[in-house]
């Protein structure tokens, strides 16, 4: 039997003892949530990146690799609506690693922390057969504003914070070894140097119009299925409403990739996926436009059914959990 990440997480959950008063949310969301004071919560998340599994040094510049190791964790804080504050970093370093390479990784890591006014407060360095990073990020926010995966209800609108499939297309461009990097810099950047949506996450959590949220790390087919499972609902999404950038459509045509496949099953977009009651259909995008100048995209609706159903022209099929399984 092959390893299933979802089954393994279920086994771990079964071994976890019942909660304590300080624990607001344990396993099963983007972050664990602890009570800090009566009104404030601490958010905790951890993630690991391993060479050849999560990154390829052949095309991933060390400075950007350091930034990404921080960014993917910060994104999980953004996914709850929180403010990231502190980080812990453990690095596994093969003996042959050049010092300059490691310096660049650390400079990149620090640059991402600086962009979010965060501080590195500890970690560990070990010898390892493959280069790896394990990062823990600590954030905080108002307890009553925390957005969980479990808050979606029937007829809610499903939104995403930006075009999908960008990072998956960027990965394919890097893999193609055809030196097409310069043609689609935004796609390559989405893969090499993703941007955690902290500011938008804060705005959405404070708006009072959003009732569930997570970040898109494994593709919307899998990630929306997580919201549906946690909220005991289903969801319908429409292929024609999935937002694509012009670059993605061009790159997909040139490299013979299916844009919809990249969006549904590709990983690592780190856009936010969230739901709101239908009465906020107009006010929510207006608020986001006013406060960030950016757009959000309505891609579907929460249903009383089960699983994530994709409506593609006259075809309708269940796409639940049809994505990458790599954690996050
Ligand atoms: Mg996440």
What does this structure look like?
- By secondary structure, this protein is α+β, with helices and mostly antiparallel strands.
- The protein is built from ten helices and 13 strands.
- The longest helix has 17 residues.
- It has two domains: 140 residues, 60s Ribosomal Protein L30, Chain: A (2-Layer Sandwich), CATH 3.30.1330.10; 172 residues, Phosphoribosyl-aminoimidazole Synthetase, Chain A, domain 2 (Alpha-Beta Complex), CATH 3.90.650.
- The structure holds magnesium ion (MG).
Let me know the largest β-sheet.
7 strands, mixed
What structural category characterises the helix and strand content?
alpha+beta
The mean pLDDT is: 92
Helix amount, in percent? Answer: 25-40%
Shape: globular
Give the ligands present. magnesium ion
Strand content: 25-35%
End-to-end distance: 23 Å
* Relevant CATH superfamily of the largest domain: PurM-like C-terminal domain
Write the CATH architecture name of the largest domain: Alpha-Beta Complex
Topology-level CATH name of the largest domain? Phosphoribosyl-aminoimidazole Synthetase, Chain A, domain 2
In total, the number of strands is 13
The CATH first-level class of the largest domain comes to: Alpha Beta
Radius of gyration: 19 Å
């Amino acid at each position: 039997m092959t390893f299933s990440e979802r089954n393994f997480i279920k086994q771990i959950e079964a071994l976890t003892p019942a909660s304590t008063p300080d624990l607001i949310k344990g396993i099963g969301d983007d972050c664990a949530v602890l009570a800090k004071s009566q009104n404030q919560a601490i958010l905790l998340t951890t993630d690991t990146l391993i060479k050849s599994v999560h990154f390829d040094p052949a095309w991933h510049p060390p400075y950007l690799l350091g930034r990404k190791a921080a960014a993917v964790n910060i994104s999980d804080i953004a996914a709850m609506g929180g403010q990231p504050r502190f980080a812990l970093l453990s690095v596994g370093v093969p003996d042959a690693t050049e010092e300059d390479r490691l310096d660049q990784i650390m400079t990149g890591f620090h640059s991402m922390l600086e962009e979010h006014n965060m501080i590195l407060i500890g970690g560990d360095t070990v010898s390892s057969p493959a280069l790896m990073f394990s990062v823990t990020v600590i954030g905080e926010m108002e307890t009553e504003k925390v957005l969980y995966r479990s808050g979606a209800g029937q007829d809610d609108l499903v939104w995403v914070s930006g075009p999908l499939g960008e990072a998956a297309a960027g990965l394919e461009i890097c893999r193609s070894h055809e030196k097409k990097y310069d043609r689609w810099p935004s796609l390559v950047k989405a893969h090499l140097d993703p941007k955690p949506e902290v500011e938008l996450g804060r705005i959405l959590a404070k708006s009072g119009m959003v009732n569930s949220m997570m970040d898109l790390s494994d593709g919307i087919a899998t990630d929306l299925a997580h919201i549906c499972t946690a909220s005991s609902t289903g969801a319908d999404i429409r292929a024609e409403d999935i937002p694509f950038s012009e670059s993605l459509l061009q790159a997909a045509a040139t490299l013979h990739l299916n844009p919809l496949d990249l969006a549904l099953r590709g990983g690592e977009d780190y856009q936010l996926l969230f739901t709101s009651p239908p009465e906020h259909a107009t006010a929510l995008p207006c608020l986001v436009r006013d406060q960030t100048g950016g757009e959000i995209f309505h891609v579907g609706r929460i249903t009383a059914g089960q699983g994530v159903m994709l409506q593609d022209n006259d075809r309708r099929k269940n796409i639940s959990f049809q994505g990458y399984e790599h954690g996050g």
